[in-house]
């Protein structure tokens, strides 16, 4: 099915689902020379919004993030429910939604336009710092989600075990509680550590204007990419765009290049 790419990590089938395509324009990397931005992405950066469905060996189902939903960013997202339906999965069957962070392109898909939960039976797992940052900010997607579904929230810290061979990986900077996931089966999900591989793999110190703490985000990116390359693990991320959704990294010069797993 179009918009679906699968990888197996131990006993978990990891299915990358593309919720939509965001056009971020030309101002995403404000500190980068315009000619360099234009060479990498003529006309501006367009990124896919990826959600990862985790189908575990015991039959339980987790989602990592929920995409944009149909109502924000001019309806750029909203494919997730149809993709799940195509896999024979009803929203009420999702056991957990594990959020990398609560920006709108990751959290808005958790609510219907009327504000009710899309995944009514799911526990909503997030880093404690993420909950604290967005709590009460109901002008944001994250704040609205916490206001509507606070009784479903389960907070975690860095290195916490989530079962099914998964542990949390706190990668702050993009947001205070931004986190990835590490799988015993040799896979890492990176969230928004990377938006543009063509620029940020060769130079991990390039950051977007969406990072709340750019210096901390750069440090998290350098550490995460160095770890992935050193350990030789496969990774995926929320905004990898194109057919390849699961990659490895190799050191190249002062940065990295991606290769097929």
Q: Keywords, please?
A:
261 residues; alpha/beta; seven-stranded mixed sheet; five-stranded mixed sheet; globular
Structure description:
By secondary structure, the protein is α/β, with parallel strands linked by helices. The longest helix has 18 residues, at 214-231. β9 (166-170) and β10 form a beta hairpin. It has a single domain (4-259), classed as Ribonuclease Z/Hydroxyacylglutathione hydrolase-like (Metallo-beta-lactamase, Chain A, 4-Layer Sandwich). The mean pLDDT is 95. The protein contains seven helices and 14 strands. The protein has helices spanning 34-40, 80-86, 104-107, 128-134, 141-149, 197-200, 214-231, and strands at 4-9, 12-25, 45-55, 61-64, 96-98, 123-127, 153-156, 161-163, 166-170, 179-183, 187-189, 234-236, 248-252, 255-259.
Question: Can I get a quick summary?
Answer:
This protein is α/β, with parallel strands linked by helices. It has 7 helices and 14 strands. The chain has one domain: Ribonuclease Z/Hydroxyacylglutathione hydrolase-like (Metallo-beta-lactamase, Chain A, 4-Layer Sandwich), CATH 3.60.15.
């Amino acid at each position: 099915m179009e918009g679906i790419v699968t990888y197996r990590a131990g006993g978990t089938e990891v299915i990358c689902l593309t919720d939509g395509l965001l056009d971020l324009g030309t101002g995403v990397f404000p500190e980068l020379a315009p000619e360099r931005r234009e060479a990498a992405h003529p006309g501006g950066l367009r990124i896919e919004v990826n959600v990862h469905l985790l189908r575990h060996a015991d039959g339980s189902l987790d989602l990592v993030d929920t995409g944009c939903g149909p109502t924000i960013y001019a309806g750029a997202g909203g494919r997730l429910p149809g993709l799940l339906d195509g896999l024979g999965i009803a929203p009420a069957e999702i056991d957990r939604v594990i959020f990398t962070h609560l920006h709108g392109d990751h959290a808005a898909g958790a609510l219907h336009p009327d504000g009710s939960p899309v995944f009514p039976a799911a526990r909503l797992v997030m880093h404690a710092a993420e909950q604290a940052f967005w709590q009460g900010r109901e002008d944001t997607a994250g704040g609205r989600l916490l206001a509507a579904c606070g009784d479903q929230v389960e907070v975690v810290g860095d290195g916490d075990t989530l079962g099914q061979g998964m542990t949390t990986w706190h990668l702050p900077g993009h947001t205070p509680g931004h986190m990835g996931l590490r799988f015993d089966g040799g896979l890492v999900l990176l969230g928004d550590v990377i938006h543009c591989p063509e620029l940020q793999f060769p130079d991990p110190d390039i950051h977007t204007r969406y990072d709340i703490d750019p210096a901390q985000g750069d440090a998290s990116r350098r550490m995460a990419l160095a770890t992935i390359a050193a350990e030789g693990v496969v990774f995926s991320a929320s905004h990898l765009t194109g057919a390849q959704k699961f990659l490895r990294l190799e050191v190249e010069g002062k940065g990295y290049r991606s290769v097929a797993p």
